[in-house]
Amino acid sequence: MEEKILKNVLLRTPIVHNITNYVTVNDCANIILACGGSPIMADDYNEVEEITCICNSLVINIGTLNESTILSMIKSGKKANELGIPVILDPVGAGASAFRSNTVRKLLDEIRFSVIRGNISEIKTVYEGSGSTKGVDAAQTDAINESNLDEIIKLAQHLSEKTGAVIAITGAVDLVAVENKAYVIRNGHKMMSQITGTGCMLTAVIGTFCGGNPDQLLESTKTAVCAMGISGELAYQKTKRTNGGTSSFRTYLIDYMSKIDTTLLKEGSKIESR
Amino acid sequence: MEEKILKNVLLRTPIVHNITNYVTVNDCANIILACGGSPIMADDYNEVEEITCICNSLVINIGTLNESTILSMIKSGKKANELGIPVILDPVGAGASAFRSNTVRKLLDEIRFSVIRGNISEIKTVYEGSGSTKGVDAAQTDAINESNLDEIIKLAQHLSEKTGAVIAITGAVDLVAVENKAYVIRNGHKMMSQITGTGCMLTAVIGTFCGGNPDQLLESTKTAVCAMGISGELAYQKTKRTNGGTSSFRTYLIDYMSKIDTTLLKEGSKIESR
Amino acid sequence: MEEKILKNVLLRTPIVHNITNYVTVNDCANIILACGGSPIMADDYNEVEEITCICNSLVINIGTLNESTILSMIKSGKKANELGIPVILDPVGAGASAFRSNTVRKLLDEIRFSVIRGNISEIKTVYEGSGSTKGVDAAQTDAINESNLDEIIKLAQHLSEKTGAVIAITGAVDLVAVENKAYVIRNGHKMMSQITGTGCMLTAVIGTFCGGNPDQLLESTKTAVCAMGISGELAYQKTKRTNGGTSSFRTYLIDYMSKIDTTLLKEGSKIESR
Known about the structure:
Three copies of one chain form a homotrimer.
Chain A: H1 2-12, E1 15-19, H2 25-34, E2 38-41, H3 48-53, E3 57-61, H4 67-83, E4 87-90, H5 98-110, E5 115-118, H6 120-128, H7 149-163, E6 166-169, E7 174-178, E8 181-185, H8 198-212, H9 217-241, H10 246-257, H11 262-268, E9 271-273
Parallel strand pairs in A: 1-2, 1-3, 3-4, 4-5, 5-6
Antiparallel strand pairs in A: 6-7, 7-8, 8-9
Helix pairs in contact in A: 1-8, 1-11, 2-8, 2-10, 6-7, 8-9, 9-10
């Protein structure tokens, strides 16, 4: 299935509309290109609807939220729902301020999301309407580990039931869940948390994969998470070989995403189905 | 001639004022430094005129257009015209929305551009007032190739006649044209389309070269297109040698721009004069 | 002392709130992570105060100043003062426009800064209320060198006396000064001026080090300047070894910051105490 997802992306070159933050926007555009999509970043109220209309998916990322783009997010999201194209939410830093938490609530009220991806602190905020977010990184007390996995899967499945969205929670271990199904994915490397934008980039890849496979949202999300994790593993190995540091790692991460093929996916994926 | 252009840039360190998008702005600043200029990014209405006054050229890029910066673009553009410094337009995604197409029309009404650079879809939109833009990348049906080259040269020359600007159309083959003269440039590599910002960066380099050679707009534009293409070729070779991917390619592209000299330019340029 | 500063950062993972420009913001976030901190970029008036409250320091950078973020800067700065966390100012391009110079004055009136870091042109503008800024890079006539060092130290110390802030002036030679003490630091490499963001990144590192050592502002600033300079030296050597250019240098600069340890600091620091 993962191979089929990837092939469709490469065949269809989905155009991905991003309303996103100004911190990691360049990485997001580059990784969308790397994994086979075509990015367009546009957030002005005057054009967002029209842009959504020429796209295959929409990614909404609240990383550097500001008042004027919230209106653009809602306008684009409603249009995407009308057109039936996938809409992905990255609730960056939800819980870090009332402004972010309230905005997430408003977005969930107005837009039907296909996928929601965040770290556990962010997803808990989405779930509970409050959380213990430590800035934009996940709080230590929240980290996913083998002992709290079952509990977090239940939370994800309940949130999926409430929102109708595929829920992806990423961290040391990654989860992708819908109401009656969950995947635990053990790809990736801890160096991914030492650069900015890994989460945002993954959300952009999910947007690309869903854009190329609008009828396979769960499988597309799972495949994107695997592809990102495998790229992280290979990037770490190359960083070590070349005596590099975190910035080389970032370069190699996008490099490997541009080289992901069905063989790498098939051989590298560490997926447990629950 | 290309060597003279390059020498003047290195001698004069032109300061380039950029009103540009937040996706590729860092790459643009870095490539301006790499090719011998000094970048300044400023877009607030309260300061743009003053900033233009201390610069040698102005680059206007509509990549992530928003209502408030349009006024800044017009204010800066008029000031640059008054001062007689080169103004370069990059109509990113023109045709993708009415907002972009209308803004391009407004900019062309209010500002006298020295150079306009875009892909063929964007330039057709500028020319016709409408186009078949596929997001921010050129539509396949529009691609320049050897069979439609003559026709596209005519379009470029007609647009140059209408606007008074040097017209640069980039793609698999690049064109630089004025009313009565055209250059076909066959440098570059297709990997340049697999990263974001190649077009924006080229426009920034054109801005730098024109800033250092304000009386040689056609030759500066041609030289910038060659320098970028040669950097792309060398970057591709190094990417292959190092088993890199698209992100390494981006690094090497800017690397080679920082190493371009008159020898590389003379030996590497593939220019056909028409 | 430098080792102690670094150890505290690694131990405490200070969260750094950045209200900054959209040109170098990604580099700033990545270098904060590289040196042991956790970055959060947020500039909307609706949330900045709350974000400051969960952070260990605040960095205000006026690189792409716009009217709406000035209010956010002041609001955050006042809150940080109230909380007693360090506030760092990077007056990018001060002197290049009245808008920037006036904003710097307003910020100094409203906020008590812990550290102010700029090139000599910017610091002179802060000092005199006017300067000879050449865009965002230091004017040649202003460059620090061995012959004007004493004079510039006096200026820095007088500015420190007026503002209560540690003053860092960076260039070919770096200075860190308070009223009755000054350090001259001779680390670094001239390639640091051939990429965008070296100054902004250093300010972000200062913010991180001060966030981890709020009672050691002078020593934290000095250590950050050394760490950045040493990273620049090592990055230059690797760039040369790999036949790289300016973009590889940028990658390696952040790489080495992610590898800085007490040994590299102790062996590499070139600090003269005055």
